[in-house]
Amino acid sequence: MIQDSLTLYKLIILYMLNRVNFSLTTAQISDFILEKEYTNFLTLQQVFSELTEAGMISSQSIRNRTHLSITEEGKETLSFFKNRISDAIINDMETYLAENEFDMRNEVSVLGDYYKSTSGEYEAHLVAKEKDINLLTITLSVPTEEMAASICDNWQKKNQDIYQYLVQELF
Length: 171
What we know:
Mean pLDDT: 90
Number of strands: 6
Radius of gyration: 18 Å
Oligomer: single chain
Structural class: alpha+beta
Largest sheet: 3 strands, antiparallel
Helix content: 55-70%
Strand order of the largest sheet: 1-3-2
């Protein structure tokens, strides 16, 4: 019984990742699954780990978020077992994605991370993406980690204004 439940949770995650054309964060998927009370947080973390270890999803850590994408193996597995997801759960997922897809896409399309460079300064690496295409990439060197973190935080809030300003000034 427990294994059947774990399989269902894996299929839900694979379905959601396959349904969108951008990566989703563990938090975004967790929000849906935990909101619907399909399972608890610890079980969900186990499922993410098992899917990653099995090569069905790939993960990339960017700052405080883990971005997930479905792999070809995950797509193949989903195609074989999709019928194990009930129509009610598929409807729940479709409704959730329809209501939240724009916000979820924006959240993962704007990336800001920083690291300490070999010169001892911190570099804030900022990216605005659409699908898999980088629209804008900026790297700023700053003297302190606090400044780099602040730049990344502000990038999340002000990226559209900054992008628009650059386009207006450069074209």
